[in-house]
Every structure is written in C-alpha cells, then in structure tokens.
Amino acid sequence: QVQLVESGGGVVQPGRSLRLSCAASGFAFSSYGMHWVRQAPGKGLEWVALISFDEISKNYTDSVKGRFTISRDNSKNTVYLQMNSLRAEDTAVYYCAKDMKWLLNNYYFEYWGQGTLVTVSS
Amino acid sequence: DIQLSQSPSFLSASVGDRVTITCRASQGISSSLAWYQQKPGKAPKLLIYAASTLQSGVPSRFSGSGSGTEFTLTISSLQPEDFATFYCQQLDGFPPTFGPGTKVDIK
Between A and B, how many CB-CB pairs are < 8 A? Predict the structure, then answer.
C-alpha cells in the first residue's frame, strides 16, 4: 500500500532554515509528481509546491517563491522541501502528497502523508 | 487566483441524514474539482475528483456533481465515521486552491 512519511519538522527561529523529507513506498515513485501542501494551526489547506516525476517542472505558490526549494531523489524514493528565510506565517503542518496522474501532473492529491509540524518562533 | 467558497461552513447533522455541501468558484473551472475529507489530527483523504468521480475505496454514499462555478458534495446517509471537515479544491487555474472547509458535526 502507498505510504508517505514526512520528517524534519520542528521549532525554528525566524530567518533560519529547515529541510523536510518525505519517504515514499508502495508505488512507482519515479513516475509520479509529488507535492507539498501545508495547513496552519486551525486553518485550511494551502498548496505549496510541486515537482514533476522527472524533476523538470517545479512550481511554487507565490508566498514561498525564492525561499523554498522542492527536490527529489528517485533512487531513494524521497522528496524534499528546503525552507529558507522562514517566517512566522510559515508555521503549519506540512504534508507531502502524491499526484494522481502517471507521468503528468494533474494536481489531484491522491495520497497524503501524516504531516510534520513546522513552528517558526523566536 | 481562483477563489472557492463553501456553504455552509458548519453543519450539524444526525446519523442517517442526507447532507449536501456546496462549493462555488470565483470563475468557471469546468469539472476540475476535488473533494477531500479530513478528520481531526489526520491528513486529508481524497473522496471525489473530476467533480463526480468517486475515488477507489470510497463508499458509494458519497457523490459529487456540478460543473462551471457550482458544485455539490452529497452524503446520502451520514454514518458515524463521516463526521469530519470537508474541503473542495480546484485545479483549473494556477495555483490550485482549496475552499475554507465545511465542518460536519454530530447533532
């Protein structure tokens, strides 16, 4: 069965960096786009970033452009989110999610990890 | 960005009730809409995609309809495990956006 396991969350001061990881199993990881979606405490869902199966396409929501970088290692079935210059408003549970479409990106989030909490606070 | 609104934002219902949640888009999005269910402390779960296609493994009491700017999620007979928050999501415009959610609580 599909499993996505995030790690790397924690408490970090404003302006500092953090890298999240998401280890995937149970599907052909190298054939699917992967996303990060976040949810601030008590709030709704916000899509953050996408990386295509072949790493050619990387898309970001405007609020993280230039600060966050999504990457993947298909040999390790892992997707990453490097978060720099963190702000208080980045505080959220970060979920990785598998795109539904094989070899394409259709932005349906078919499977989700359990999430990892990032708290940006001094 | 395409904005999504949901109504109601909160719904109190009993087991066995028929429940309908509406999602409205700020512009036409064809059928590019999904519905997710999220229980407290858990990740969202995909219920319906392409406005009306039931995701594999999702009970048939869930159904979706609509196109353009107005969409509905219907639960034909609410079960105890269905109490949760439901979100719609559009993928017609970039970035993909979610509605604010509808919390379904026990009456």
Answer: 46
pLDDT confidence bin for B11, thresholds 50/70/90: very high
Distance from CA of A75 to the nearest CA of B (A): 26
| Average pLDDT of span B57-62 | 98
Residues with Cβ within 8 Å of A109's Cβ and at least 6 positions away in sequence, in order, are A35, A37, A97, A98, A99, A100, B34, B36, B44, B46, B89
Burial code (b: 16+ CB inside 10 Å, e: under 16) for B17-47 equals: eebebbbbbeeebebbbbbbbbeeeebbbbb
Residue among A62, A108, A112 whose CB faces B43 most closely: A112
Q: Is the pLDDT of residue B106 over 90?
A: no
Summarize pLDDT for A41-83 with one digit per residue, the tens. Answer: 999 999 999 999 999 999 999 999 999 999 999 999 999 999 9
CB contact, 8 Å: A46 with chain B? yes
- Whether residues A108 and B44 touch (CB distance < 8 A) is answered with no
What is chain A's length? 122
